[in-house]
């Protein structure tokens, strides 16, 4: 986003009215569409000859950018082919504070989120548009879709504007057209590769390596290790394949042979990938520290509502089934008692509430299925195969089921009860309990469940991308208390720890998740003290450089780390020191207050 502010240009006509956008590609050159140039100079719309004349250009997102006259130095236009619509302007003066854009081209951009700042009719000062990138069409254009009903769509006036992909910190191309039917909220861009083929000078701004390879090298540089020591895990789930550079980024960057760093730069977008990812993390997790880095999306007010409903007064901690307990919290009948959809109709749930119920229960059913699967693998002595098998078998199965039912239930919520019956038939908790009885409570099974449940619980109660990875020591603490506590307690405990650190999240880009001090600490009692606001910092470890860490905010610091512009370890130590100082100050204040009270 910051780079886009420094490179997004606007073209004005002779009446100084905005006619389109452009993007700075050198100290004094701006890339735009040829048809925008024709409009700015009041030429025939089908003009294909190199125009003469001066065009006024400014940088509306940057106050010091100023206004600059320019001349056309490159013009390539075929009115019958929108992909052949490229022009370059040369500014007479260099704009202050502006920086040429970075482009990406060799990454499959399907499903990436984009942002664009354009100048639709009536909004000449500009407006932001957001959505998702689609696929390349027969002309070589990349489709843009504004996925939200509210907000501005990409429409006439956006032509020539750069399309920014935040996950890659780069421009994917420039807008060239929009669908004639505004209700479709679809538009098109000329992708970087096509632009570079017409204007070769652009190649110098294009990343020549895939995004995953770049991150591997940058992380290796930051960590001071050889490039071969970091490899990004590739994965494919049956019919559904993670595409391009985003695939391993969604999955997480996994060190080869060690787990000092575990970074999820772009959170996964489906529950199936989320849960299998969490289980894999737990399976490969070693005794070393883990650094977890995430770039959250916008926080949603709905998260608080979900927390409140998941932690209602009717929450049944003793239930053998997380899904059943959640259903009762929502006021639903036991899942096995559904005969038809009449009960749901009587409850008069809104579509939004039904969607929340579906999402929550689906998450928990998936968790139970994963738990069963993990136990079966461990009973058979196949713990080493767990991480490999989870992807090919369970993930494929659950992904297909999820796709089918999500599509059906979106328009027919009355089928929700049938959905519950079908899914619960695959989550036989008795099998899990039998498996645990064979392997005992103090084996890897509770540790795996602990890590998965915690990661999943956080995501159920808060936005999807807030998913901590607990260390092995914390997992062992809960393992001592057995599966009974895991069933009903972990959602509650997860929420309380989040509440404890949430205030820090709004003040800084870093949140360090504390560990319990005493491995013998009574988890239920400690959780109750959290709930009652009686928790004391003396019960928590002081964080160290190996503690799990969350990075929030706009991701600028993460990109600086990946670019090697910051010493990560030194900065982390500073963050830790600041955190400790804050906690000690609060403890001193509490002690002083208690002394005055006595």
TrEMBL record:
It comes from the Bacteria. Pfam families: CTD2 (PF20278), Trypsin_2 (PF13365). Gene3D superfamilies: 2.40.10.120. Signal peptide: none annotated. Residues 237-573 form the ABC-three component systems C-terminal domain. InterPro entries: ABC-3C_CTD2, Peptidase_S1_PA. This is ABC-three component systems C-terminal domain-containing protein. It comes from Fimbriiglobus ruber.
